[in-house]
Amino acid sequence: MLKVLYSGSVTYLDEKNNVFVAPSSSCTYIETSENKIIVDTSSKDKKKIIISNLNKLDVKLKEIDYIISSHNHNNHNGNNGLFRNAEIVKYSDGSINDFKDPEVEIMWTPGHTFDSISVIHEDYVVAPAAVHLKKNILQNYDIPIAIDLEISKKSIQRIVALKKHVITGHDGILYASEYI
């Protein structure tokens, strides 16, 4: 099972010139036969939304086994502390090598940062660091902040080639039927 707990957001001061404030990442819950997983915990101001949506699924904070952190930015991992029993999985410290779940694959998708990762589960790619907005795929729109734009574009191309639904970082779900 996969459920988006929060679809992400960004507030623009000037959208034409891509000037924004207060981005909050998506937060996705994945339940496999072996684990309960959160991909990115969003920014601290989304705490109540995340807890409320987990409660609707009858999932307790202490039941989460893993937090998979797409990269090390505060607007993506601001609520990690809520999940005290969870192991944090990220690229930057090598902990992705210790993560084991036969129903989940972690894919290195650098560009926004060098440590950006995405998560593949069933018909979905959870790509909050690699794909910020739907238009990154639909309009081939460059992500606003990339340490390497060419590598970022290649990561997005690899995600698109999977032909799965994409959970973006700040713009909800892009369904495969919308871009294939």
TrEMBL record:
The superkingdom listed in its UniProt entry is Archaea
Main site of residence? cytoplasm
The Swiss-Prot or TrEMBL record annotates one GO molecular function as: hydrolase activity
Q: Which SMART domains does the protein's record reference? A: Lactamase_B
Which Pfam family, any one of them, does this sequence belong to?
Lactamase_B
Give all residue intervals belonging to the Metallo-beta-lactamase domain: 24-170
Subcellular location, record wording: Cytoplasm, Cytosol
Q: What does this protein do?
A: Endoribonuclease that catalyzes the hydrolysis of histone-coding pre-mRNA 3'-end. Involved in histone pre-mRNA processing during the S-phase of the cell cycle, which is required for entering/progressing through S-phase. Cleaves histone pre-mRNA at a major and a minor cleavage site after the 5'-ACCCA-3' and the 5'-ACCCACA-3' sequence, respectively, and located downstream of the stem-loop. May require the presence of the HDE element located at the histone pre-RNA 3'-end to avoid non-specific cleavage.
**Quaternary structure and partners:** Homodimer.
Please report the name of this protein according to its UniProt entry. Answer: Metallo-beta-lactamase domain-containing protein 1
Native species: Methanococcus maripaludis (Methanococcus deltae)
